[in-house]
Design a protein that fits this description.
This protein is of the alpha/beta class. Helices cover 53% and strands 8% of the residues. The chain is built from 14 helices and 5 strands. Strand 1, helix 8 and strand 2 form a beta-alpha-beta unit. Bound molecules: cobalamin (B12).
Length: 275
């Protein structure tokens, strides 16, 4: 028996609880037993194991589930949307309720990204390059999971996607537009305090006389009406929509105004936000 184990065996848990006036409320409730989490978690396998892996921040379980799904020939996009993202939605629900804390979010975020990397191996990079795009997370914002998905989908669809990373100063975005002349710029913001960067990017681009066909703005806290309150922009709903938006700019010369009007047709599905 180790020193720590020996000490633990001598501890009287009841005494500790009384000593610190802790009321014992019975056994801890498992995250997957929470009613909101139960509504979010998928019922069928391997999506259920993948989502539960993310929920527990268990990288190994998440990866095993993803590999199993890929071996069963499930599409990597389905694995991301029906497994990994559901796990993250459940994590968000528990964080909002105050049951999860920042370290939980970090473990879950890392597990999700490992799963995404595994899917990326299958999606791969197309060898021919259609055009260049630029992606960034707004200045002051550390949330980069959505942006990483956007970049992955663009690369898998043949775009040379320049990834500027997270917490990117507006000036760096403008410099990248000047240097790479992208056909599409994507911005992601998850906080109400950082989404205000988008109109600033547009303002700076206009000041410098730089034209981009469109700036796709997405992220958890961003809303369509906010994005449509400034020019050059289009509200992006799902990361996998990005290559379809880019294709319509490249092939059909769609403008940002047309992207707003024809979003659902362009991405090829009913999008409630655009109904
Ligand atoms: C994971 C997480 C973290 C992780 C991030 C890890 C990482 N590497 O990204 C960590 C632990 C770092 C973190 C930190 C913080 N977080 Co946090 N975090 C979250 C959480 C739970 C999930 C976010 C996420 O990754 N979602 C999944 C991804 C895939 O979603 P997404 O990025 O939105 O992308 C989707 C779409 O938006 C779309 N999309 C995105 N961009 C684009 C672009 C285009 C063109 C298109 C088409 C689509 C598209 O594609 C994706 C879907 O397919 C959210 C909760 C929530 N409800 O969102 C809180 C949340 C975003 N965090 C929040 C906060 C407050 C913080 C902290 C400030 C907390 C603190 N007290 O310190 C810190 C940040 C500190 C700092 N400034 O450095 C708040 C923001 C509140 C607000 N309204 O401003 C939230 C909403 C939680 C809450 N309910 O309070 N967080």
């Amino acid at each position: 028996m180790s020193y720590v184990e020996e000490l633990e065996s001598q501890l009287d848990q009841n005494f500790i609880a009384i000593r610190y006036n802790v009321e014992m409320e019975g056994p801890a409730i498992k995250p997957e037993s929470d009613p909101d989490v139960q509504n979010i978690l998928p019922k069928e396998e391997p999506y259920k194991s993948i989502a539960t892996g993310v929920l527990y921040g268990d990288m190994e379980a998440t990866l095993n589930g993803v590999k199993e799904g890929l071996e069963e020939d499930l599409s990597p996009i389905d694995i991301i949307n029906n497994g990994l993202m559901k796990g993250m939605d459940a994590v968000s629900a528990l964080y909002t309720k105050g049951f999860y804390f920042l370290p939980d979010l970090m473990l879950s975020g890392d597990s999700m990204m490992e799963g995404v990397k595994e899917c990326e191996k299958v999606l791969g990079h197309k060898s021919e390059t259609k055009a260049t795009t630029v992606s960034f997370v707004a200045e002051g914002d550390p949330h980069d999971i959505g942006k990483n998905l956007v970049v992955m989908f663009l690369r898998a669809n043949g775009y040379d996607a320049i990834d500027l990373g997270r917490d990117v100063p507006t000036e760096e975005v403008i410099n990248a537009v000047e240097e790479y002349k992208p056909i599409f710029v994507t911005g992601t913001a998850l906080m109400t305090t950082t989404m205000t960067v988008f109109p600033k990017v547009v303002e700076e681009l206009e000041k410098k006389g730089l034209k981009v066909p469109a700036l796709g703005c997405g992220g958890g806290s961003v809303r369509k009406d906010f994005v449509e309150s400034f020019p050059m922009s289009v509200y992006g709903v799902e990361a996998y929509h990005t290559p379809k938006l880019a294709d319509s700019i490249l092939k059909d010369k769609k403008t940002w105004k047309e992207l707003r009007k024809e979003y659902s047709e362009i991405v090829g599905e009913f999008v409630p936000e655009y109904a």
